[in-house]
Amino acid sequence: KELKNPIKEFSRFKAFYRVPFCTADFETMLVNGEHKPFSYTICYFNVFDVSKSKIVMKIITETEDLIADFIANCKAMTVHNYNLQNVDTAPPHGDIPQDTECPWCLTETNAKNPLEFNHSHWQGDNLNKEHDRWICHRCNMAVTLRNKPLKFLFHNGSKFDFSLFSAEILNDQSLHGHNFIAKTESRFSEISLQFGDLLYDSRPWVKNYRYKFAFNDSRMLLSEPLAALANAWILPEDVDKYIAPLLQIYYRDEAIVDQIK
Q1: Are strands 54-59 and 115-118 parallel, antiparallel or unpaired?
Q2: Are 73 and 56 in contact (CB under 8 A)?
Q3: Tens digits of residue pLDDT in 38-48
Q4: Rounded distance, CA 67 to CA 153, Å?
Q5: Residue 165: closest CA among 43, 56, 78, 40
Q6: What are φ and ψ of residue 115, in 5° steps?
Q7: Could you write out the DSSP letters of every residue in 152-166?
């Protein structure tokens, strides 16, 4: 589709920190005229090292068992993602200059809001080094990624996929803090959840659990069909570099990987 302004910059969504995320999808079959899920795939994409990504693929004909396993796998991926954020010792930073003004919020620091050294807590983080710097306490708390949910992206999930497991997550007693961001009256662009042990929070009315994840509709960000997106992002000569190593993690069969070349 031709743009009226061909040099327009796409600036609505920009990532501050580049972090791991998940993609997920269900396959369904028609049973008495009704779509019933029989398989799902979850891919945890480690953006720092693709060889450390994880893929889960399951086929179960009983819908209730399939959805229960799906939620259990989402929890396992969330715990894995949380545990990767375990680098608590800051790199050497004695030569990094300090200022009286926070470079992010541009406010003057003081005794109540002092300067603190911000650094990535991710294992093997090779994408966010530019954020290793002195910032104010408030900004440092705001970008604590352990308190941010792991994203599970479904293509057009708000129209179909979310309805497959909504009842399960609403009746799961281990899940808390259900939060729905509405897209329309009956569709949601994001569903966020928490589980695990309850952490301390200075605000008693806020329930802050250790592990957090969210289901998101990727069509809110990228509206094209998946095949078009793949062709736009991955050149044929880059398949060996990006796609083949990811599939190899699950299939471990060169013949299957060869089929995508």
Answers
A1: unpaired
A2: yes
A3: 999 999 999 99
A4: 17
A5: 40
A6: -70, 140
A7: EEETTTTTTHHHHHH
